[in-house]
Structure formats: C-alpha cells, structure tokens
Amino acid sequence: MKTKHKVLTIVGLISFFIIFDLSFFFSFTYIVLPNKSEAMRAKSIEIGEYLPFEEETKIIKKKDSLEFEGEKPVIDCATALYPVASAFAYSLYEPSDIHFEDNNFAEDSKLQLNNTSGAYKRIVDGTSDIGLLAKPSDKQKEYAASKGVEFVLTPIGYESFVFLLSKKNPVDSLTIDEVKGIYSGKYSNWKELGGKNKQIIPIQRAENSGSQTAFLSFMNGEDTIRRPLNIFGSAIGYSFRYYVDNVVQNSDVKMVSLNGVYPSKENVQNKTYPIVSNFYAVTSSKNTNPNVQKVLDWIKGETAQQIIDETGYVRL
Amino acid sequence: MDKKFKTTVIGISVVGILSLIALFIVTIYWFNYASIIEVMSRLG
User: Fold this and answer.
1) Where does chain A have alpha helices with state H?
2) Domain for residue A25, yes or no?
3) pLDDT digits (tens, 9 = 90+) for A78-136
4) Chain A interface test: which of B6, B18, B36, B38 (most A C-beta within 10 Å)
5) N or C, which end of chain A has less CB nearby within 10 Å?
6) Is residue A167 located within the same domain as residue A152?
C-alpha cells in the first residue's frame, strides 16, 4: 500500500469515528431539548393523581354547591394550575360531569387540561369556558383578536416566577440585573457570578407557554440568547414556584433567591420577593353562558380562596 | 499491509469505539443531571 493511501485511510478512519461519535451524542441529547420530546411533555403532571373524585386524590377537597341553570362551564387550565382546577371541579360538579379516558379528559368532560396554549385557544374557540392561567402571550391575544374575541382576566391568586439552578451549582442568589445579564448574553460563565468555572446554559421554553410569556415580560423587551446544551455547562431555567415546589419536587433542582429574597410562600404573600404576579380565571368576552359569572364570583369567594391557599398558591 | 500500519488502524478503531462508550456513559450521566431541563419541559 502506498504511503498516500495509508494516510488517506487513517484520516478517513479518524474522521469516521469523530462524525459517528458526535452524531450519536447529539442525537441522544437532542431529544430532551425542551418541547422536543413527546415523552417529556406527556409526563408534565401525573394527571391521575389529581383527579377530582378519586379516593386517593392529592387535591384539596371542599364540597360546595352552586345553582346551575343550563350548561355547566368547562374549566380548563395550565398544567401548574391543574390541582386547583380539579379541586374546583370537585367542589362544584358531580362525578358524572367529569369523564377521564386513556390518561386524558374526554371532550364532554367539564374539567379539561389543555395546558396554557391549548386552553387559550379553546377559550377563543368556545370549547372551554374558564381557563385558570397566567397572562396571555401577544400571539394568543392576536389569535383572539382575529376571531373577534377579547380575553377577560379575573385575578384569583398570586404566584411567583422563579429561576432554577442545579443543586450542584454553588450560586444561591442572583440579582434581577444578573439574571437579565445571563439571558441577554452579558454573562457567559458562572465564575463571573461567584460560581464554578462553567459555561452558563440559559434555557428557554417554547413560545406561548405560560412561563415563557412570564419570562419575556420579565425581560421587558431585551434581546435574549439561546445557547446549545452541553455537558460541560451548568443550566439556568425558570418556572412558577408552586409547580417547582409542590408538583415536581425534583431534588436535583433549587430555586434561587432574587435580590437576596428566597421565593418562599411567605415572601410571595408579603410581596418581598421581587417577581410576584396574579394568575387568572380567563374567559372570553363573547361567552354568554350565565353560569360562567356564577363560577367566577364563587372563585373570588372564601371556599375557592381557601382551596387556592391550601393547594399551595397564594390567595388574594 | 505492513505491521505498523495495521497497528495504527487497530489503535484508531479501539480509541474510536472507546470514545463512543465514554460518550454513552457521559450521555447517561447528563440525563441524570438534566433535571432543570426536565422541570422546564414538564411545565405545560
């Protein structure tokens, strides 16, 4: 074999292994990128654990009654607010109103879980009446406007927006400016913020999800960056306190203090935590079902507010 | 094929396969510690 052929064979072999190995690595890690994996989305919450009329349900059970004339409103919700929506359904509805099949609610069920983007769409389309949700995104408002609908937002409680780090990250507290600096690209290494010499991986969620809308509102129009995931960096993400603390309870993740204040329920209640906002019962301006207003009034009342509080959110 | 060339080819192949195994282990490790991503992915 000539020397030239030998060199070509060796270079070819090295190139093959580099390409093959990297393809393997990226194809495996890519599937857990946010919103890319159906499996990851499907297990967003164990729906069965919070069903309203199951004996072993995790919801707060407080039976109440409202006089309904005609169709009972369909209650839809964001994933994080599903335990509250389910508790409301338990209070106001009968078991025969809730239909759960194949790990999801049937179309004729008065309780639905279609996540933020799905619930907003269904409110506009008139298939859901009340959505327990965070604020709508611009796109959701545009979709509503295109159908001649306006969203009516009734505040029903408070929640805090939190930033998350791996428990292994020694950083415990950040300022609002530092978080904005991370997401705008000013800071790229945790060393600059008192952490280890590791690249910062700022993770964002898909457009129109409740937490992404809250995040963009937090950034207040500043440009944001997305950096590819890699094993040598350490990530920062965001969510709502209740979801992190009560639903996921992932022991590998911690919430960081903002401006020195930890996002505990007490600090949300006394509003010392800097990012506290309402969550809402969202309805359509075109909805004519008289029972919708009855339920909205009930949600602002004592029983529903106790449910919100005991579930783990902060009441009005 | 001379012996030196043969040894080089086998050496590269062994390193390539070992790298693949190492990446596989790192990937599994990474999955275990990807919980921040999981939290975000799980929120609808």
Assistant:
1) 3-30, 38-42, 82-92, 115-125, 138-146, 176-184, 210-219, 241-242, 265-269, 290-299, 302-311
2) no
3) 988 999 999 999 999 999 999 998 778 999 999 999 989 999 999 999 999 999 999 99
4) B36
5) N
6) no
